[in-house]
Amino acid sequence: MGVVEILVIIGCALIVGGVIVKSIINKKNGKTSCGCGCSDCSKCHGCKSREDEKNKTDS
Fold it and tell me: Which residues, other chains included, contact 35 with Cβ-Cβ below 8 Å and sequence gap of 6+?
């Protein structure tokens, strides 16, 4: 393996690691995995469950 291949592998590993870390940080902050405000999206179960919890505490 040459230097270029090693640098590409290291770069890819850093990108994947960054995505994983960002995902963990977003989850701890209570954000959705898609990163958007998809409260009216019928396919997003993460938003629906959070809205249900919010509605239970408001009532």
Answer: 26
